[in-house]
UniProtKB/TrEMBL annotation:
Xref: SUPFAM superfamilies: POZ domain
Organism the protein comes from: Pisolithus tinctorius Marx 270
Domain BTB: residue ranges: 19-83
Name of the protein: BTB domain-containing protein
InterPro entries in alphabetical order: BTB/POZ_dom, SKP1/BTB/POZ_sf
Alphabetized CDD domains for the sequence: BTB_POZ_ZBTB_KLHL-like
Matching Gene3D superfamilies: Potassium Channel Kv1.1, Chain A
Domain of life: Eukaryota
Pfam family, one: BTB
Length: 190
């Protein structure tokens, strides 16, 4: 069990001793955070705190501790998106995909969601447009899907040599068909 392994504490600002809750990542890093900040940014966090699901008692304090399935890297990035005065950073596209999944999972508020999309687009849209298109369609983010589709015009997706990306496994045939139709329409207009 995760809680039996040794834990470490996250980097500032997620190490505050005046925090009122601890999030424990899948790799046993404790994030000492404030319920109100997370609850205002995510109805899923609010429900988790209200319902007390996954709550454990912290051995050294009386703070409630909630185990989450995200790694410390993903949780750190997600919390930096939510917390005021912090800026998230992504070190790889794999981190970016995990971050997008966490943003969707916790149903991050409309205030923070555009920042998350822009962070992904600025760093990864040019190189990973097909993957971002698939993920954006899956999560219903039409604006980011549209940007990825526009970026995809650099590649002839009507060609048989379309690169395979893992996210194609999660993409519906209808989603891919819309991308093909978009390419046909753009080619006809050109």
């Amino acid at each position: 069990m995760k809680s039996e392994l040794s834990t470490s504490t996250a980097k500032p600002p997620f190490d505050r001793v005046d925090a009122d809750v601890i999030l424990l990542s899948s790799d046993n890093v404790e994030f000492w955070v404030f319920k109100v900040i997370l609850s205002l940014s995510s109805p899923n966090f609010e429900n988790m705190f209200w319902l007390g699901s996954s709550q454990k008692s912290h051995s050294e304090t009386s703070l409630p501790t909630f185990e989450v399935s995200e790694s410390s890297t993903t949780l750190d990035t997600l919390l930096r998106l939510i917390y005021p005065t912090t800026t998230p950073t992504l070190h790889s596209y794999d981190d970016a995909k995990d971050f997008l999944r966490a943003v969707a999972k916790y149903n991050i508020s409309d205030d923070a969601l555009p920042r998350a999309k822009e962070l992904i687009a600025a760093q990864y849209l040019e190189e990973h447009f097909l993957s971002i298109y698939a993920l954006s369609c899956r999560y219903g983010w039409k604006d980011l899907a549209q940007r990825a589709a526009m970026e995809s015009l650099r590649l002839d997706v009507l060609d048989r040599n379309v690169p395979y990306v893992e996210e194609m496994e999660e993409m519906t045939a209808a989603t891919y068909r819309r991308l093909l139709s978009y390419h046909r329409a753009c080619a006809a207009a050109a």
